[in-house]
């Protein structure tokens, strides 16, 4: 019976808004976690119907042993919708069983009223935007190569498909291509699986060989593109839980312990608990070039000996999180077919999304967040050697995105440091959705900005910008790895073309009676 009390307690905490579904379930002792999670999620799926059944049967009024609505919900769930109550015969179980016939007939009545052919039709409608986000898997190249990972998945029966397309997302959502996976077209080392793919218990995940990270969340580190030379010193100013930090580490080949600076990547996290998570994640990802610092980034002195040579800073500060669509959040909404509060009725265009907000409720909170985000950028721009600053959020609000960037460009720190927005060519040029021109002082600047829209881009909502210092920097000091990779690809292509040309010439020569040397 303890298991039902545990599940009821999770529901109580959710009612009290003490955290997200994932977060609260994460606090349940590990031995019970999976089972409790399944019961909580299934109960939430049917909560409106189960509550109606309980009300109609007047169960709580008649049975004093059932001490709370949430305890009744989990028990009635198992009684009516699963394989019965999984507990020995105690007074609580007996109290529910006494009402079995009544509860069942109330459920049947609801089904008839709603014209539902099966009980499944009584479940809440899921958020289709979340269902269309593939399960993204970043191969942790600190441990192994993408090719090795691909081979491993193929050996497990997954089939490697061509490049990701809208069609593939649709196939994923309708579970047609359940054993397929693909390589991402924008982020190397990122793989896409059908949305329902469960990998959080997989040994590859537990060993840190794969990181479960949304595609959009890979953009900031990729765009910051830290070099692998020893001289580069990088700060991740807001690091926990550490997905972007471990991505930075992988892009730097886990290298860079330059003397006298022992560590190449400083990862700041001010929250003590989250700092613990950060350390666990970095150790699991086998990152060795990182010094994790449990401190507020704003308290660092840019001229401190350790930081004076910082060249790259990643800022992914706390934000409203309004871009996150998650496969579970819809379960906490009150209506049967509702979407999260900030959201809109599909089709979810950006304008619809923003119009759907409750401006009065959000305005003050957004302004506070925006002021803090701007302070972080201004502080980052004070580091004397910094060449690149990436600023990102998982928000869809212009107030936290374009407006913060617009304000940052107007600041004294930006002007004194000769920073500007990097051109589109340096900021994921092939990504189509850019910033909102009408929200910028110079509309063309929106081309420098990357936006992601949930429901349309097969990612969560996201925003990324890159500030670069205008002053010329010696080649090699901060030449970004993306440009370098592109350059290497082009060089390889030219070499290939040249070799093919030579081969053709030789062949022609041989045919003409000339001898190849
Ligand atoms: C959006 S989360 C970062 C997510 C992280 N970049 C990742 O991808 O895993 C923001 C984090 O920054 C931390 N934070 C916020 N302000 C900070 C500050 N001034 N200094 C250090 N950490 C800060 C928060 O506690 C939170 O853990």
TrEMBL record:
This is SAM-dependent MTase RsmB/NOP-type domain-containing protein. It comes from Phanerochaete carnosa (strain HHB-10118-sp). InterPro entries: MeTrfase_RsmB-F_NOP2_cat, MeTrfase_RsmB-F_NOP2_dom, NSUN5_7_fdxn-like, NSUN5_RCM1_N, RCMT, SAM-dependent_MTases_sf. Keywords: Methyltransferase, RNA-binding, S-adenosyl-L-methionine, Transferase. GO terms for molecular function: RNA binding; RNA methyltransferase activity. Belongs to the class I-like SAM-binding methyltransferase superfamily. RsmB/NOP family. PANTHER family: 28S RRNA (CYTOSINE-C(5))-METHYLTRANSFERASE (PTHR22807:SF4), NOP2 YEAST -RELATED NOL1/NOP2/FMU SUN DOMAIN-CONTAINING (PTHR22807). The lineage of its organism: Eukaryota, Fungi, Dikarya, Basidiomycota, Agaricomycotina. The active site is at 394 (nucleophile).
